[in-house]
Amino acid sequence: MKVTYYGHSCMGVNVNGVDLLFDPFITPNELAKHIDINSVPADYILVSHGHEDHLADVQTIAERTGAKIVSNFEIVSWFAEKGLQNGHPMNHGGNWTFDFGTVQYVNAVHSSTLPDGKSGGNPGGFIVKTPEGTFYFAGDTALTKDMQLFGEQNEFSFVMLPLGDNFTMGIDDAVIAAEYLQCNRVIGMHYDTFPYIVIDKNEAKTKFKEAGNELILIEIGKTVEL
Ligand code: NI
Ligand code: MN
Question: How many angstroms separate the most distant Cα atoms in the chain?
Fold first, then answer.
């Protein structure tokens, strides 16, 4: 799988030639000014919850690419009202098999009100099982013991976790999350975008290393193969 970081919590994952795009927030992100959203590929756009910093560019990218929007029922319905009819609604615990693999929408401990104040349902994350491997995109969440269950039920190639603290778990809890998830390869997200979530990247890497895990912080616009 090829993983491209577009800043904040926006990740592109290429699985067998299919492009999954998670939580697009690119044009409002000062750190991602060099990314041209017209060049961001997407066959599917997966939205973890209703906050602006996870869906700001969904409409633009979905209109250009025709990508299918995968999220909870409330968010998929909200985009349908905006004319984006190609959606797949889910809710917590549910699995659906797409052409690239199986997605499970799982619990996140956070909130999910949409930018216009409407309900974005309950926040979530995604477990994606593909022939190339299984990974977890946590979205915005606190550390939760549910992660222990995810780790028991899956063998993760890598997991994507928020690190920035304040609005989500911070570095110390992310180290524990990796332990619960039984995965020693963590891709960091949700850090440095805003003053509240600035992290010390070296300190973060050291803390993961001390726990026997690898923390991968991808440069914005760069791709890693995992
Ligand atoms: Ni959020
Ligand atoms: Mn957020």
Answer: 49
Structure tokens at 189: 């997200």
pLDDT in the model for residue 108: 98
Task: Please tell me the distance between residue 129's alpha carbon and the centre of ligand 2 in angstroms.
Answer: 24
pLDDT at residue 120, rounded to an integer: 98
Per-residue confidence (pLDDT) for residue 181, from 0 to 100: 98
Q: What is the CATH number of the domain that holds 9?
A: 3.60.15.10
* Ligand 1 center to 190 CA (angstroms): 9
Q: How far apart are CA 76 and CA 70, in angstroms?
A: 7
Q: Using the mean position of ligand 2's atoms as its centre, give its distance from the Cα of residue 26 in Å.
A: 13
Report the separation in Å between the CA atom of 57 and the middle of ligand 2, taken as the mean of its atom positions.
14
**Assigned domain for 223 exists:** no
Is the residue at 166 inside a domain? yes
Number of domains in the chain: 1
Spans of the chain below 50 pLDDT: none
